[in-house]
Specification:
Elements (H helix, E strand, L loop, with lengths): L11 H33 L4 H16 L2 H11 L9 H26 L3 H9 L4 H16 L1 H14 L11 H12 L2 H30 L5
Helix pairs in contact: 1-2, 1-4, 1-8, 2-4, 3-4, 4-6, 4-7, 5-6, 7-9, 8-9
Main location: membrane
Family: Belongs to the binding-protein-dependent transport system permease family. HisMQ subfamily.
Organism: Massilia agri
């Protein structure tokens, strides 16, 4: 049967708005996940057993439970204990918590990769432990973690498609509405496929370029 993409033209604006909402949710979740992941990585490399255990439990739970279960728990469960969040805020929170668990592994690996000699030199210079981590360890760890963090962001973009399950009309949610209105699922979902491929490709390109820029003096 013939395929007609011209009938989708009136809906391109809606799809663009959906893509923008997806991008906003992912950008906020990236910031939240980076913060949570950094804190968890520091706790996992700390000398205090309790801090390590708490961080490990957090990472294990959010890496090993399906994202849609986490999303439904936050969306339907939090109001039961008096925590009222919008669907969008709940989606960003869920993505941040899940992203933080994976980000923690990346940053932890970066911290452990810092040469012991660098730490010894910093200690000899009289810097406090906090200053060593803030001014030396974390900048090195983050610089070497750019590519893996780019992969985490790509995964956030892909995972964000599940947010439509809690009534958020991001890119996938909008595409479902358009497919229902036009009765053209092939055209709509092919366009959706291409949009997600473009978004993830751009993120991969950007992370690769940033990695080369930050590490150009180490080549």
């Amino acid at each position: 049967m013939p395929f007609d993409f011209t009938t989708l033209e009136p809906y391109l604006g809606d799809l663009a708005l959906g893509a923008r909402l997806s991008a906003l949710a992912c950008a906020l979740a990236l910031a939240g996940g980076l913060l949570l992941g950094t804190v968890a990585a520091l706790m996992r490399t700390a000398s205090a057993p309790l801090a390590r255990r708490v961080a490990e439990v957090y990472v294990d739970v959010f890496r090993n439970v399906p994202f849609i279960v986490q999303l439904f728990f936050l969306f339907y469960g939090l109001p039961e204990i008096g925590v009222e969040l919008s669907a969008f805020a709940t989606g960003v929170l869920a993505l941040s918590l899940a992203g933080g668990a994976f980000t923690s592994d990346v940053i932890r690996s970066g911290i452990l990769a810092v040469e012991p000699g660098v730490l010894e030199a910093a200690q000899v210079s009289g810097l406090s432990r906090l200053a060593i981590y803030r001014r030396i360890v974390l900048p090195i760890a983050l610089r070497t973690s750019v590519r893996p963090l780019g992969s985490v962001f790509v995964n956030l973009i892909l995972t964000s498609s599940i947010l439509s399950a809690i009534t958020i009309n991001e890119l996938t949610g909008t595409a479902k509405i358009v497919a229902s209105d036009t009765f053209q699922p092939f055209e709509v979902y092919l366009l959706l496929l291409l949009l997600y491929a473009a978004m993830t490709w751009l993120v991969s390109l950007a992370s690769g370029a940033l990695h080369r820029r930050l590490n150009r003096n180490l080549a």
